[in-house]
Amino acid sequence: MDVESLLARESFIELGARSRTRKLLDPGSFRELIDPFARLTSPWLARQGIVTQADDGVVVGKGLIDGQPAVVLGIEGAYQGGSMGEVSAAKIAGSLELAAEDNRAGIPTRAVILFETGGVRLQEANLGLAAIAEIHAAIVDLRRYQPVIGITAGPVGCYGGMSIAAGLCSYLIATREARLGLNGPAVIEQEAGIAEFDSRDRPFIWSLTGGEQRYRSGLVDAYLEDDVAAIRAQMLAFFRQRPPDCARSQKISGFQRRIAEIDAGSQVEPQQVRDIYSKGFAA
Amino acid sequence: MENLQFEFPAAAPASGRAIAGVVASGDLEVLLEPADAALTTVSIATSVSGMRPVWAAQLARIFGDGQLPAARLQINDFGATPGVVRMRIAQAYEDLAPAQPERNGNGR
Question: What pLDDT, in 10s, does the model give residues A128-185?
Fold first, then answer.
């Protein structure tokens, strides 16, 4: 990429959740539900001496995509690591449930989720976990009617229960900066030892869980530059094509077959993962 | 965590509401809403305790002359430096957009 196109490019990663949400909706159609002035904040953080954010880190943007009703759910990764608390996760789950109800009532509302999250907010424990389970159920419900598109751009990435939510989406978009995994690097190191996983080795982490690796392994559907226009264009392309007949998360026997090919006796190299997973997950 | 309240003289009511910033490390969130009287109130929740004199001094620099529109400000602070405090408050006043509340960005 030359200097000029680099300067002309508008970074998606540098935008906050509210700006990202607005950029994905058709120009002028953004309307925020339960906005910061509604002051629906976490009831649990303040009593643990933690400053709350007025939107609890989730932006619910209602509007149009391609002229069709849409809701974009933007997670703010800079606030508490984009963690899912009772309120923030309920905003996402409730929005997805309403979108599914819209579809049952003949309104073709579609949804986009911006995954920038470490997963559950530890300070809210089971309440966050329960709400994440509701997000999972709502994605599976809604994707029967409309594609649900997940985008993980970085820098936080997508971890924990929310990585499962990302896996349930009809389509998943990632950039090179993004990481996608069930456990974060520090957790893996703590559980498996530094010989297995060195959480300070950034190239190693990205080689196994980065956006490019996840794309080459068939776990992400589009791998893009950090560019607002490119990300929006890909989102539109996915919405315009027919939803997949079979969601990735339904290809269970296909995944089992690939996992059976992995030799757990030795450290798996990123290229081996690509070689095995790129065969696909057809049953 | 500490909660602080301040009051300053102000001009006519602000023309709308605005939000700036994120409760991220070294940053803060400002929620700005119009106030009726010629009085601006600043309500702060900060993660750093014991900094009241610094807040008082920095806010006096911003609001002391009473020239800014009257507003109710809520600040949720996660260790922002005085320079960032000043920038985010300025950003909120700049973003005032009564007709299009959806324009209110967090500036990132």
Answer: 999 999 999 999 999 999 999 999 999 999 999 999 999 999 999 999 999 999 998 9
Instruction: Note the pLDDT of residue B104.
Output: 44
Q: Domain ranges for chain B, please list them.
A: 2-103
- Stretch A51-74: mean pLDDT, rounded? 97
8 Å CB contact of A16 and B105: yes
- Give the ipTM: 0.89
Whole-angstrom distance, CA of residue A139 vs CA of residue B1: 37
The whole-angstrom separation of Cα A220 and Cα B26 is 33
Q: Where are the beta strands (DSSP E) in chain A?
A: 31-33, 58-65, 68-75, 110-114, 148-152, 158-159, 171-175, 180-181, 222-224
**Of A14, A49, A53, Cβ closest to residue B23:** A53
Domains delineated in chain A: 3-248 (3.90.226.10), 251-283 (no CATH)
CA–CA min distance A175, chain B (Å): 18
Give the whole-angstrom CA distance, residue B88 versus residue B106: 9
- Quick one: chain A helix, strand, coil %, rounded to 5? 45, 15, 40
Residues of A in contact with B23 (CB under 8 A): 51-53, 78-80
- Architecture of the CATH domain B2-103: 2-Layer Sandwich (3.30)
d(CA A18, CA A41): 16
Establish if A11 touches chain B: CB-CB under 8 angstroms. no
List the single residue in B with minimal CA-CA distance to A20. Answer: B108
Nearest residue, CB atoms, A51 vs list B31, B77, B107: B77
Average pLDDT estimate for B77-86: 97
Closest chain B CA to residue A14: B108
pTM of the shown model? 0.93
Please report the pLDDT score of residue B37 as a whole number. Answer: 83
Residues B104, B102: Cα–Cα separation, whole Å: 5
Whether B31 sits inside 8 A of A36 (CB atoms) is yes
Tens digits of residue pLDDT in B4-13: 999 999 999 9
Of A35, A49, A76, the CB nearest to B22: A76
